Amino acid sequence: MDVSKISKTKVAMVTFVLSEATFFLMLVIAYVYYQGHPASSGEAARLLDPVKTGIFSLCLFASSYTVHRAGIALHRSRSSRLRLWLGATVVLGATFLAGQAHEYLGLFHAGQNLGRDLFGSSFFTLTGFHGFHVLVGLVILSSFLGLSLAGKVGPAEGEERTGGTERGLRRNRDAFEAATIYWHFVDAVWVVIFSVVYLWAAI
Amino acid sequence: MSLLAWISTVDHKRIGILYLLVTLFFFLVGGVEALLMRIQLARPESTFLTPDQYNQIFTMHGTTMIFLVVMPALIGLGNYVVPLMVGARDMAFPRLNAFSLWILLFGGLLLYFSFMAGGAPAAGWFSYAPLSEKNFNMSPGLDYWSLSVFILGIGTLSSAINFIATILTMRAPGMTLRRLPLFVWMTLVNSLLIVFAIPVLNAAAVMLFFDRQYGASFFQAAGGGSAILWQHFFWVFGHPEVYIMVLPAFGILSEVIPVFSRKPIFGYEFVAASTVAIGLLSFGVWVHHMFVSGLGQPVDLVFAAGSMLIAIPTGVKIFNWSATLFGGSIRFTTSLLFALAFLIQFTVGGLSGVMFATVPIDWQLTDTYFVVAHFHYVLFGGTFFGLMAGLYYWFPKITGRMLSERLGKWHFWLTVIGFNGTFMVQHLLGLMGMPRRAYTYPDLPYWGALNQISTVGAFLMGISVVLLLVNVVWALRHGEIAGDNPWDGWSLEWATSSPPPEHNFDRLPPVRGRRPLWELDETVPTGGGAGEEA
Asked: Is residue B41 part of a domain?
């Protein structure tokens, strides 16, 4: 096996994602466990709006596609496309977060919060940590967008490529692919959460 | 070398040394806490400490020794040695490495700040709910506990990710996974355990913190929460944690014993594979900490079987090390002495562990001093002795000077006598029913005398630590100059100067087998394939 073929950045990100997946697994277990409790069963169906959240979820799912396209654009050294797809990803992710904020405000008005009951505790902890992860992803992707606008990532305008060396460009790509892995992960976690929390509440 | 250069360093060797110094500091603090407990318990119905003080001190002793001493000491040693052993220039992410170190220090300081902020945590190192909840522990101690455990977890996780990336992608040409030194193998498996175990604790710590700070009811019976869920979460982390604290010590033994027996390790593949087996099994045995919580016979039986199963790969290792010693030309250095004592004492701890896997015995002995004796045989008699074996072995590489063998032997024998004196009698106390974590005990026959023996042993251990410090300070000034390879070792760290230059290697020897330096001396055919099995 050629050692230099494996990117350390990607190895680290995959390892990190495995660890994060375990973290979310525990939060999901806590949520499911307490759904069985009389004090919290029915709360999800009463308070949550699966359709509205479903629409915002589509934004997050779509952003997995746009970030994938951004990766292809970087690979083909097309910087304007890279910025376009990256910008779309950030907008879609931010829309999802705005939807979540809106949902939280509604729940707070209905008197629900972290300390109200078991549903509140497990729901806000689970979805809150996911929202935080989306926010972190947005910071990472926006940084890439900013670096790209500054000509530090991918090719600059009118040039074949910048960063000068082949190695620098490869580091760019490795870092971006690692960020993509993280973003897909955040998305995949939401597939699980949306199914367990919202779809379960709808049936 | 200025102070700033040390604080801002990203060199894995300096970070490794700083790790060891930070853990030494917390080891002394945790050791003093242990001595305070032993003074309190030296005679029945003592009033040296109040019950509340005693609760805080045993909680801090356990939390300190596990999160601030054993784990980071093993990580720190790995930090120094692993890049050298795989022939790398540094860890994969040097700045992340520095982050792990400093977050360890500040996480530890945050934990200790609780003493000034209204009282240290007082619910034991596993913080069982509902005792850890606000209505039973009103001081902010447990808030500090959950926060700092979370922060320390992030630091541990960062170094695990760093180790995995380093070992998988930074190896020297020719250093295939089948030629990896066993210490590196153990560090790799250990890092994977950390990756999956630490987030479990972090999730639980977050929930506990939310319970206490924001009135959530995860583990609050009043709000419908489940205290048993805390136990599950904690031990799903807690049992792999036990192996996180011992696997690297296994790795140290697997380096030290062959070098001082002048023989290759017996059954390299078995040592590596049994480590992987332990890693997998360790996630399926957690309920043996919860046999008295009433989960029912079917659950108990499954986990009893799982727990006994894990004794097999561990036993395989004991036989491998014994077989390596067998027929070797053994040099009884201090390092090897510590490794041999590990073998015996860890086996004692392992046997009492099998006893605990037997459900009825567990029901009888749980929460007694038998448990305390058991895990100290594994953690102190095992891991700490392993760490000492590693310290005497790699100290010449780290500092360029040899520790005194004469002082070292005093240190060794005093530690052996002190350790066994402290904990052997605790088996008896446990069998007689003395409960752990009680601040005092009634004047029952033998209890006072046995506890006194235990306290004397603890102070002997205290003296042995002073001897170690004297030895280190003496060696730094007057120790014999070590040279590149004082022990005739054969892994790559001995191929460079002691201490190594900042870039580690001027020139790497070719890696054509498992013992590059040994094979360098012989006429090795340069064709491929040779030495793959060697």
From this structure: yes
